Amino acid sequence: GENVEQHPSTLSVQEGDSAVIKCTYSDSASNYFPWYKQELGKRPQLIIDIRSNVGEKKDQRIAVTLNKTAKHFSLHITETQPEDSAVYFCAASMNSGGYQKVTFGIGTKLQVIP
Amino acid sequence: DGGITQSPKYLFRKEGQNVTLSCEQNLNHDAMYWYRQDPGQGLRLIYYSQIVNDFQKGDIAEGYSVSREKKESFPLTVTSAQKNPTAFYLCASKTQGTESPLHFGNGTRLTVT
Q1: Which string of DSSP letters, residue by residue, matches A21-54?
Q2: Which residues from chain A sit within 8 angstroms of residue B40, using beta carbons?
Q3: Quick one: average pLDDT of B18-26?
Q4: Which of A18, A39, A66, B38 is deepest in the core (most CB within 10 A)?
Q5: How far, rounded to the nearest angstrom, does the alpha carbon of residue A85 sit from its chain's CA centroid?
Q6: Chain A residues close to B97, C-beta within 8 Å
C-alpha cells in the first residue's frame, strides 16, 4: 500500500521567515496531493492541493511543488505569520481497486515565533 | 448549512464495552472515511466506504467495525477487541474521483478507562 513520509515533525521559524515541509510517497499510482492545516482542537482543513499533471501551484503565501519522478512534494509558506502556527499534514490519494484511498503523513507542527 | 457532524464530541467508556461513534453528512458525498489521530502518528485510516452497503478495511481496522446503510451515515464501532482505543477519531467525506479533497468532521475524543 501507499506510504507517505513527512518531515520535519516540528519546525520553528521567526515571523516573516519561510517554512518548508517535505513529503515523499511510495506508490506511483497516487495522483492527487492535498495539504491540510489543523489548528489546536479543530478539524483538518484543506489549504492547497496539487494534481499529478502539475509541477507547482501557488496561492498567495502558500505554494506546493511536486516531483513525480522522485515521488516527493513540498509545501512552502512565505512571510510566515503567528496565525500560521498549526499542524500541517500532507496526503496522497490514489484509486485502489475502485476505492479512493487517502494516506496521510505524520504531520509537522509549525511554530511561528513573533 | 452543509457539513459533517460527528457526535458526541467527548465520549467516555469503561474497558470491555463496545462504543459507537456517529458520523452524518449532508454534502451528498459518496465516499466516507474514518481516521484515528494519535500524537506523533498523524492520521491513520481505519475504514472507508465508496457506496452504500460497501466498505473497505484501512491500515488499522482491527478492533473496529463500520456500517453504511445510508449514504449520509457511516457509524464506527470501537469494540472491546481494540487494544488501545483511547484516541481522537475523525470522520471525513469526499466526492467521487481521486482528485477531490476530504471534508472533515470536528472529531470525537474517546477515552476508555
Answers
A1: EEEEES-TT--EEEEEEE-TTS--EEEEEEETT-
A2: 9, 106
A3: 96
A4: A66
A5: 14
A6: 100
**Residue A97 scores a pLDDT above 80:** no
CB atoms within 10 A of CB A106: 20
Per-residue confidence (pLDDT) for residue B1, from 0 to 100? 52
Give the residue-averaged pLDDT of A84-92. 97
Asked whether the beta carbons of A97 and A88 are under 8 A apart, the reply is no
Q: Could you report the per-residue pLDDT of B49-73, keeping only the tens digit for each?
A: 999 999 999 999 999 999 999 999 9
List CB contacts (< 8 A) between A54 and chain B: none
| Whether B90 and A43 lie within 8 Å, measured CB to CB | yes
